[in-house]
């Protein structure tokens, strides 16, 4: 099955959930193609996500790419002034495209993606970015010592599905590669931060919610982590 068939006889809520009847697809049917992505790209990306989720739901953690509201919220404090940016679990690159649109140069992006299919897609779409097929819990060894410190980290990983030891490894590895004062951005489908309090305390981190993307499906909270 190469794509989700738009003719599937599914309830409206399930078609939206699977990305078949996203707002972008509806605009395309009316002849108004979204300026943010090529015609059909979002629908194809939703299909890719759904296939990867079926293949490995724990590793993929989501059945579709993040929506526009979440994308705008998690990237709004980052721009060309940020310098190098590290993205963890970029998937099909919805956050990546937003970062570039906000002025982050493609050559200043380091994308860490464990899924080989997503990594290959990212290479095709962003040939000037540094794309690493690696586990986010091994950042200390995955990222070369000659890479400049990052001005921000954007995390698209499902931390709630991970063991505390792995979460701590991801955060400690990321902050070891970040500039002083740089921020780590993550989202969660709950109102509380997905990083346990004891891990924040142990690493000397402070978590602050910067907003809730109510129009995302499901609604998502975005948190900014900084070194205390």
Automatic annotation (TrEMBL):
<protein>
    <recommendedName>
        <fullName>Methyltransferase domain-containing protein</fullName>
    </recommendedName>
</protein>
<dbReference type="InterPro" id="IPR029063">
    <property type="entry name" value="SAM-dependent_MTases_sf"/>
</dbReference>
<dbReference type="InterPro" id="IPR041698">
    <property type="entry name" value="Methyltransf_25"/>
</dbReference>
<feature type="domain" description="Methyltransferase">
    <location>
        <begin position="85"/>
        <end position="181"/>
    </location>
</feature>
<dbReference type="Pfam" id="PF13649">
    <property type="entry name" value="Methyltransf_25"/>
</dbReference>
